[in-house]
Structure formats: structure tokens, C-alpha cells
Automatic annotation (TrEMBL):
Enzyme superclass (EC): isomerase
Reactions this protein catalyses: ATP + H2O = ADP + phosphate + H(+)
Origin species: Gouania willdenowi
Subcellular location(s) per record: Mitochondrion inner membrane; Mitochondrion matrix, Mitochondrion nucleoid
Full protein name: Twinkle mtDNA helicase
Any one cellular-component term (Gene Ontology): mitochondrial nucleoid
Ranges of Basic and acidic residues composition bias in the record: 660-681
UniProt keyword list: ATP-binding, DNA replication, Helicase, Hydrolase, Isomerase, Lipid-binding, Membrane, Mitochondrion, Mitochondrion inner membrane, Mitochondrion nucleoid, Nucleotide-binding, Transit peptide
GO biological process, one term: mitochondrial DNA replication
EC number: 5.6.2.3
GO molecular function, one term: 5'-3' DNA helicase activity
Length: 701
């Protein structure tokens, strides 16, 4: 919901986005005419990432720029502002309150990574550029503060206002027709608790956290209270379902929708003086921790999928943060990456234990939660460790081989058989002949993962984002929507909910800029898969009088480093350096040197028409797999109506898997096999050409 506003007194046009975050009237504003004020050029960052094209109320609070924390600190010091160096933010006195009311309070938080600010007293927020503008104006006008109402909002469009009102009414309607647990007859309350497997959570705890039951859909209601008046901003509905194996799975829905839902559940119960908190992945876990340990505990709004930086100021007061996000490897990975945002020094992590317990399960099984929390380990990385320290990590990996192997593709079971899954921190290099369908295939492969919650960032330099999103939406809906336009909104609404982001770069790009954007997106959106289409678009600005392949190797090296340091998977599409008509592509067709092929964890090749068994068909070949060494090839059919790939029907194809062979050998083995087949086919083809030639000769005669 974007609004245009005037910066009062300065006749400067600002673009403002209304946000439901934690406050009643809480602006995120972005200066797009900053040159008007003091001619500072717009940071390239500002336009570097775009949200999904289908969104009109972007989830992106993205006003990032290339400032460093040193820049921020120096600038603030140059303005004689006293700074407290916090964990993820600098704390400064609010410039939106007069000196007498702000006293010594440092209630304005400036994010050390992006420079975004939030004043917790007045709830004004904005970008680093906005803060600088405000400070410049204060200097120029010799004022000691600005009014929090310095931004004048125009009403939202009628449509937006109506949607917003409808949402709020729906929140109120559900809330008022839900029943507090304490008002339920004891038998009913017990039944509900059994259904949700929370029999050990007392009615008193449920009451303290304000949990209710919404009977019509048998869901628990978790409220989102926030703002100076602690009013109801939204809610989360959670329903429980029992699976065949007698496990309970939970489904959740939020109002407002997930991308605007920023509830740190449990925050209103935290005292100003509390210096310790336990961060959990679900509301049930937060209640379990609070009940059995008495410690303040808050749940993340979107579980382990992300920790939006906009929430960080609310966690600054804690000297110690224990992350207990769940019991699986994904939660463990998330807790490691969130602790980097929170500041490693103060974070400790609960490692998934032998029985993989989250807090609610631990409580249900009568475990001692205090004891589990005491066993949490420091998030700070030590440069030298002994096996004794690694011992539990190794054990955890052995115990959870399936989870360690990564996220499985739902649409490509053959790929699971070879690669085992999609893992964080790896670099996948993907190639194929020109126009063979590389973009189309990677689009579906990444979409498959994104639909399972893998936060994905696309850098599509070759085709524009609208075209790419159209391909993805077709693959998502599994049909051509141009023929069913009436279904567009239905699919677009669902597609919009995916954790999918696009860089807005197009054409040749500077590698540093791309790297900075990727790094930023990891911070802002907890991106764990970056797709780059394609590497050649990063080479244009390099000095190509030096060896082209040396440049390519160097760029691959940058991506490698990024994948490792940010623990983020990078899929890099590369055009082959040479294509020969009668030969399949090999690793050597892509890489300039052995070094570059060493950098990649996985090398995938989309082979085209080379398998004579199925003419015209593409095959996907894995020629390198660092995880467990399996390589192989399998055919792919293309479904034009949905732009998707699938494996041919059973019996028609065979997965050829080469287990445990070194990369080179496997490659050779594969190509030998292919060559043999090709040779056979060529002879056959030659024979048939001969006979058809003979036939036509005869016909001519
Ligand atoms: N297996 C396939 N069979 C037939 N057509 C395909 C196949 N895969 C993709 N296509 C179509 O081919 C066209 C080119 O596909 P795409 O852009 O994915 O290829 P590419 O390899 O990325 O191209 P480039 O080499 O230019 O980067 C698209 O129109 C796509 O729908």
C-alpha cells in the first residue's frame, strides 16, 4: 500500500508505504527524490531487488544501500549524536521527541547493516537516506527535533482502504467469536488440547498468552497485540490434523497475510528489564518454554523460514538470546543463520537432540526444558576445534542422513536419486546447448524448491522478470493461463505467497554489485537459494583482454565464496564454451581450468538430442556431485502446455547411475556409453539413409 506524502515544510515528495508492523500508524517511507534535498545520488541498492511482480503491497521493506556500519557511525558522530553500539543496531536519542521528553533514552534504532531506522517511542521508521535527510534538515533549520508527524499521509486508494478495512473486520470478527480457553467447559478444553497434543500446557499459560479457540474451523487463535495501545493487529489460526502414522501436523493461516504478518508472539509479556529471551519457531513452543522455565519467550512470526530485520530492534534489550527453533536440521541451520543477524556474541543455540525435540514436544514428553536450555551451545565460531567439540555435530549428521541430504524435489525424483537433495551452501553449475531449455528447466527446478519453503532470489540478466515470472507461473499452475485468464487471479494469489524475489538487474552487470545485492538479500529475506542466469552477463565489464577463462574462473570463485560464507545455495547457469554438433557436452565444455570445476559442488548438464534412444529428447546429466559422488543421467520429456519437464513413463527410460566413480571417470564412462550408442545409431542411421537414398534413387529411376 504505497502512499505519496509530503515532508512537511520541505515540499519534498516522498513515497510512503503503510505498514501494519507493530504500530497503529507506522510508516515506511522511501525517498525517491532525494536529490531535491541535498543532491545525494540514489544508492544503486535502492533498485537492486524487486519483489514479486504480482504483489502490490510489497513485502519488501527494502531500502538497503551500500553503507557500512563504519559509515553510519561516522556520520552520526559527525552530527554530535551519542551512540550506543548495540547488537544489530546503533541506539541513538530519538530525533522525533523534544529533549525534555526523550531525556537520556536511546529509543531510535539504526540497523547496522542497512541503516534503516525505527523510533520505538514514536514508531516512525524509514531508510538510512531518510534519517540523513531529517538530520540535515534539523541542522539547517537549527532544530533539536522534528515532529513525528513530519510525514503527511494521503489516504490510501479506495480499493486498498477497503481491503485493509475488510481484513481488520475479519480479524475482529474471528477474535470476538473465538472462545478463551478458560471459558470452555473442562471436557471440551481437554479434547482440544489432546487434538493439538498440548495437554501439558496449562489453561493458565494459554490464558496468559491470550490463546483462544475458533470453533467453526476447530483452530487455535494466536493474537497479535502491538502498538502503544496494545491493540489487536492480526492473528494466526492454527489447525491440527492427525496423520496415518498418528503424528499431528499443523496448518496455519494468518491475517493479515503471511508477508505482512510481523508478530513476535509473546512480546507483550516481556518486561522492560528482562535481559534474556528464548526465541522459538512456533507459538506452542514459546508457551511450553515460558511455562516450564519461567523465562521470557517469543515465537517468530514465520517460523524458521525467516527473521525479518524489522523485528531486530525489539530484541535489542536482551543480553542473551537462546534460539530453540525446532528439532530438525532445518531449524538448526536457521538458528545458526539468525544468530548472525542477532549478533553471535549473545546467542546460544539448542542443538537438535537425539530425539529431535522442539520445546512443545519436549514438554509433552516430560523432559526438563531448563536442562535442555542449559545445554545450548554458543553461536560464536571458534577457529580451532577438537573432535570432542565436533562429536555431537557428526552424530547429528549420522542420525539424520535424510535431512542432511537436503530438500528433495517433488517434481524430479530421479534427481533426488542422484543428488539426494538440495543443500545450503553449495554451488551448482548448470549448462546446456544454446536454446536447449536451461532457463526453463532451472526455473521449474527452483520453483519446486521454493514451493517447499526455500527462500529464493533470481538474478535473471538475460530475460526480463516479467517473462521469467510468466514461465514460472505457467509451471506453477501447470497450464497456459492465456487460455484461462479467468483463473489468473487464483494462481497469482497463490504464487504471490511463495518466498520468491527477483533482482531487477538486466543485461551486463558489475559482479560486485550483484554480490552486494545477494549478500543484502540474505540479510533481509534469509535467502537460501540464489539463481544466476547467466554468468556471461557478469563478464562484460571485466577486462577481457586478459584470458576470458581466467575471468570466468575468478567470477565462479566469487560465487563459491558467497555460497560458503552465507551458507546459501547458488545455482549458476553458464553457456558452454564450445558446442560441437556431434558430441555431448562435458565438464570440459564449460570450465576454463580444473580450478573452476573444483569450486563447483554439483555440475549439471542439460543434454540435447544426443541420446539416440529417444530422439529430440533432453536428458539431465549430473557429472559432479560432491555430496556423495553419485553421478548419472536421465531423460526428460518437455510438456509444452505447462512448460514443465517430466520423466518419460515407466519402462520407457532407465536412469543410468554411476555410483562412486571419480568425476572424470564417470564422465568418460557416460560419454563412452553414449558414444557407443551414438556409433550404433549412426551406423543404423547411415544404413537407413543409404536405404532411403537407394529407395529414392529407385523411385527417381
Ligand atoms: N525440452 C524442450 N523442448 C522443446 N522446447 C523447449 C524445451 N525446453 C525449453 N523449450 C523452449 O525453448 C525456448 C528456449 O528455452 P530457454 O530460454 O529455457 O533456453 P536456454 O537454454 O536458457 O536459452 P539460451 O541458450 O538462449 O540461454 C523456450 O521457448 C522454451 O519454452
Amino acid at each position: 500500500m504505497w502512499r505519496r506524502v509530503l515532508l512537511k515544510d520541505f515540499t519534498c515528495v516522498l513515497q510512503v508505504k503503510s505498514s501494519t508492523f507493530l504500530h497503529q500508524r507506522h510508516f515506511t517511507h522511501r525517498l525517491f527524490t532525494q536529490k531535491l534535498l541535498h543532491g545525494r545520488p540514489q544508492p544503486p541498492w535502492l533498485c537492486a531487488i524487486n519483489s514479486r511482480p504480482f504483489k502490490n503491497d510489497s513485502t519488501l521493506e527494502f531500502t538497503g544501500n551500500a553503507v557500512t556500519r563504519t559509515d553510519i557511525k561516522q556520520y552520526l558522530l559527525s552530527k554530535d549524536i551519542s551512540i550506543h553500539d548495540g547488537y544489530s543496531s546503533f541506539h541513538i536519542p530519538s530525533i522525533f521527541m523534544d529533549a525534555s521528553s526523550r531525556r537520556d533514552r536511546l529509543s531510535l534504532f539504526v540497523d547496522k547493516t542497512t541503516g534503516r531506522f525505527l523510533c520505538k517511542d514514536t514508531l516512525v521508521e524509514g531508510s538510512w537516506e531518510d534519517l540523513q535527510d531529517c538530520l540535515e534538515v534539523m541542522d539547517r533549520e537549527e532544530q533539536d527535533h522534528l515532529s513525528p508527524h513530519v510525514l503527511l499521509g494521503y489516504p490510501e486508494s479506495k480499493e486498498e482502504q477497503e481491503e485493509h478495512d475488510r481484513e481488520l473486520q475479519e480479524v475482529q470478527r474471528i477474535w470476538s467469536s473465538s472462545v478463551p480457553f478458560t471459558d470452555l467447559p473442562e471436557d471440551d478444553a481437554q479434547l482440544v488440547k489432546t487434538m493439538f497434543q498440548i495437554t501439558n500446557i496449562s489453561n493458565a499459560t494459554l490464558k496468559r498468552f491470550g490463546v483462544r479457540l475458533f470453533k467453526p474451523i476447530k483452530s487455535l487463535v494466536f493474537p497479535w497485540f502491538a502498538g502503544p495501545d496494545s491493540s489487536l493487529k492480526g492473528l494466526k489460526l492454527v489447525s491440527a490434523q492427525r496423520t496415518d502414522t498418528d503424528r499431528v501436523t499443523y496448518n496455519e493461516a494468518t491475517l493479515p497475510k503471511t508477508s505482512s504478518y510481523y508478530n513476535l508472539f509473546g512480546l507483550p509479556l516481556v518486561g522492560h528489564m528482562d535481559s534474556e529471551v528464548v526465541l522459538t519457531g512456533t507459538e506452542l513452543d514459546a508457551m511450553a518454554v515460558s511455562q516450564s522455565t519461567g523465562l521470557p519467550s517469543v515465537a517468530l512470526p514465520r517460523g524458521v523460514s525467516c527473521l525479518p530485520p524489522i523485528l531486530l530492534p525489539y530484541l535489542e534489550q536482551f543480553k542473551r538470546v537462546t534460539l530453540w527453533l525446532g528439532g530438525d536440521i532445518r531449524s538448526w541451520e536457521a538458528s545458526k543463520s539468525f544468530s548472525r543477524k542477532l549478533g553471535l556474541r549473545r546467542c546460544s543455540l539448542v542443538r537438535p537432540g537425539e530425539y529431535q525435540l522442539c520445546a512443545a514436544e519436549a514438554l509433552a514428553q516430560g523432559k526438563n526444558l531448563k536442562h535442555i536450555l542449559r545445554g545450548s551451545i554458543s553461536a560464536e565460531h571458534k577457529s580451532i576445534v577438537s573432535f570432542q567439540q565436533l562429536r555431537d555435530d557428526v552424530y547429528g549428521e549420522l542420525l539424520n542422513t535424510e535431512q542432511v541430504a537436503g530438500v528433495k524435489w517433488t517434481r524430479f525424483p530421479e534427481l533426488n536419486k542422484i543428488l539426494k537433495g538440495h543443500r545450503k551452501g553449495e554451488l551448482t553449475v548448470f549448462t546446456g546447448p544454446t536454446g536447449s531449455g536451461k532457463t526453463t528447466f532451472i526455473s521449474e527446478m527452483a520453483l519446486d524448491l521454493c514451493m517447499q519453503g526455500v527462500n529464493t532470489l533470481w538474478g535473471s540478466f538475460e530475460i526480463n522478470n516479467v517473462r521469467l515470472a510468466k514461465v514460472m507461473l505457467t509451471q506453477f499452475a501447470m497450464q497456459r493461463l492465456e487460455k484461462n485468464l479467468e483463473q489468473y487471479d487464483f494462481w497469482a494469489d497463490k504464487f504471490e505467497e511463495l518466498p520468491l524475489y527477483f533482482m531487477t538487474f538486466h543485461g551486463q552487470q558489475n559482479i560486485k554489485m550483484v554480490m552486494d545485492t545477494m549478500q543484502h538479500s540474505v540479510y533481509l529475506h534469509d535467502i537460501n537459494h540464489v539463481v544466476i542466469d547467466n554468468l556471461q552477463f557478469m563478464m562484460g565489464q571485466e577486462n577481457l583482454s586478459v584470458d576470458k577463462f581466467a575471468v570466468q574462473d575468478r567470477i565462479i570463485g566469487y560465487f563459491r565464496k558467497f555460497a560458503t560464507s552465507c551458507n546459501c545455495h547458488v545455482t549458476l547457469i553458464i553457456h558452454p564454451r564450445k558446442e560441437e554438433d556431434d558430441r555431448e557436452l562435458q565438464m570440459a565444455s564449460i570450465f576454463g581450468s580444473a580450478k573452476a570445476s573444483q569450486e563447483a559442488d554439483n555440475v549439471l548438464i542439460l543434454q540435447e538430442k544426443k541420446l539416440v534412444t529417444c530422439p529430440g529428447r533432453r536428458s539431465l546429466q549430473v557429472t559432479k556431485n560432491r555430496f556423495d559422488g553419485d553421478v548419472g543421467i536421465f531423460p526428460l520429456d518437455f510438456v509444452k502446455t505447462s512448460l514443465t519437464f517430466c520423466t518419460p513413463l515407466k519402462g520407457k527410460h532407465k536412469l543410468r547411475k554411476v555410483i562412486g566413480k571419480p568425476e572424470g571417470e564417470a564422465d568418460e564412462g557416460e560419454s563412452k556409453e553414449v558414444q557407443k550408442k551414438e556409433k550404433g545409431a549412426k551406423t543404423k542411421a547411415a544404413r537407413s539413409t543409404k536405404s532411403s537414398a537407394a529407395g529414392s534413387e529407385t523411385a527417381k529411376k
